[in-house]
Amino acid sequence: MQKISLTRNQKAVLVGTLLGDGSLQKTGEKNARLRLEHGGKQKDYVLWKMHAFPRLFQGKPVYLRRVHTKTLATYEYWRAQSSASPVLGTWRALFYPGGKKRIPENLVEILTEPLALAVWYMDDGYYNPKDHNSFLYLGRVSRKEAECAQDMLSKNFELSVRIYDKKNKGFALYFSTVETKKLHTLIRQHVVLPTFAYKLGDIP
């Protein structure tokens, strides 16, 4: 069993990943492993995240295809799973109270690094090149959780965002053109993969 401590950058990547598309799977009483899954064109992103945790990930990501049972649409994606570790078990207890993934109430204390925000945006952010605004999709969280994320962005990064109810898509945080420019300036140095250049469109 891996007994490790995480660096400041590793914590930032992990927080952004858990708020985004990553998940922690319980393995035993106090341990967990990190699962990464990204689209078929994002192998480089999976590898980038794996390289951020060299002691937790070994081997290569696996390419998978899944057919939706109702729409019959085929989904292609890459998956990587880490070794189990007590330190990941600690993070699972924070993000999965009662066994369900949530936005932690103390997010303002957890997400303090632009790198974490950049990873979250790469996972779940959307940039509208026509209107020069952005959204950060939160999924099916409660309004209280959405307000927690909104408060964190205000206090830690001086970003003023609004909460939109996207109905079937859940809640999302809306960044106006002005706030999008501030966001992109804040995270640009951390969005290093060409895969995500479209999420940092030029704003007049």
Q: Could you explain the architecture of this structure?
A:
The chain has two domains: 8-99, Roll (Endonuclease I-creI); 108-200, Homing endonucleases (Endonuclease I-creI, Roll), CATH 3.10.28.10. Helix content is 36%, strand content 23%. The chain is built from seven helices and eight strands. It has helices spanning 8-19, 43-52, 86-95, 107-110, 114-124, 143-157, 177-187, and strands spanning 23-26, 32-39, 62-67, 74-81, 125-128, 133-139, 162-165, 171-175. β5 (125-128) and β6 form a beta hairpin.
Which descriptors would you attach to this protein?
four-stranded antiparallel sheet, 7 helices, Endonuclease I-creI, alpha+beta, 2 domains, 204 residues
Gist of the model:
It is built from seven helices and eight strands. The chain has 204 residues and is α+β, with helices and mostly antiparallel strands.
Report how far the terminal alpha carbons are from each other.
Answer: 51 Å
Spatial extent as radius of gyration: 17 Å
Q: What is the general shape?
A: globular
**Helical content class:** 25-40%
- The CATH superfamily of the largest domain is known as Homing endonucleases
Annotation, overall tally of beta strands: 8
Task: Furnish the topology, listing elements before pairings.
Layout: H1 8-19, E1 23-26, E2 32-39, H2 43-52, E3 62-67, E4 74-81, H3 86-95, H4 107-110, H5 114-124, E5 125-128, E6 133-139, H6 143-157, E7 162-165, E8 171-175, H7 177-187
Antiparallel strand pairs: 1-2, 2-4, 3-4, 5-6, 6-8, 7-8
